[in-house]
Design a protein that fits this description.
Number of domains: 2
Number of helices: 2
Strand content: 25-35%
CATH architecture of the largest domain: Sandwich
Shape: elongated
Order of helices and strands: HHEEEEEEEEE
CATH class of the largest domain: Mainly Beta
Structural class: alpha+beta
Length: about 170
Amino acid sequence: MLDRRRGYKSCNDDMRRRRCCEYLSLVGLVATFLLTAGLAVSAAPAGAVGCYGDYCSGQDPQATGCADDAQTVAWYDAQGARLELRWSPTCQTNWARFILYPQGWSYVHNATLSAVQDTGYTQSTSVESAGSDQTQTFWTPMIYSPVHCVKAVYDAQNGFDHAETACK
């Protein structure tokens, strides 16, 4: 700024100082807003999911996107099938998955597939198949369980076939 001798207001002028402070306050406020908004946008994961935490309990892991980063943390291999316990680190959930491999003959397969938390809380689904020449996959709804262990359980309706994974 130029001084009064050249016809311009001085930086020491009270009105000018007040406007300068208001301007700097406004710039600071806008910068804070933009920085905060930028952090909020960057905090969202690249593959956003449709739920988080306990809101995921009872929901489909495929439909919510929780299955996208899922890992198999326990399993039980049987003849023609595999029972798995799945874990999503993003959603903090577990669920049971049952993979039925092609058998080469026709059969009726009715069972209950469950994810069972050590508290007794359970999510289940029916496994019904008349056989297929394609691999079939079934899964339960999810259980939010960042602390308690969960196991996958398979119970056939014939009363003889039972399998379960370790509690993880």
